Amino acid sequence: QVQLVESGGGLVQTGGSLRLSCAASTTISSINFMGWYRQAPGKQRELVASMTDSGSTNYADSVKGRFTISIDNAKNTAYLQMNSLKPEDTAVYYCNAKVRRSVLYYTYWGQGTQVTVSS
């Protein structure tokens, strides 16, 4: 079982920045896939940014060039640096981890953190 605890959300004006943190209860280097998702009211949850255990990153087109995912192995923490925020970035942001054990992948979610961008 892996527990994920997010922090760092809040209210920010358009053009501002926030950094979200996701603290993992396990050695983060054992996690095969780390992702940040978001869900706005009335919309489906979408993948915003991800990083594999090989260091490969992927971003949604809507956040490319503005958001950066990173991992600090020493702190077992993943981050999402969000710059040039827009009102459409307003959502609950969730940390996601996938861990492979034998032939199966197990998926874990954090509780979510609210990000609100005012215009």
Q: What's this, in brief?
A:
This protein is an all-beta fold and 119 residues long. The protein is built from no helices and 11 strands.
Describe this structure in words.
By secondary structure, the chain is mostly beta strands. Helix content is 0%, strand content 56%. The protein contains no helices and eleven strands. It has strands spanning 4-7, 10-13, 18-24, 33-39, 46-52, 57-59, 67-72, 77-82, 91-101, 104-109, 113-118. The model has no long low-confidence stretch (mean pLDDT 95).
- How many helical stretches? 0
Largest sheet: 7 strands, mixed
Number of strands: 11
Oligomeric organization of the protein chains: single chain
Radius of gyration: 14 Å
Uncertain residue segments: none
Backbone structural class: mainly beta
Q: What proportion of the residues is helical, as a percent range? A: under 10%
Mean pLDDT: 95
Q: How far is it from the N-terminal to the C-terminal residue, by CA?
A: 40 Å
Residues in β-strands, percent: over 45%
Shape by Cα distribution: globular
Topology pattern, helix = H, strand = E = EEEEEEEEEEE
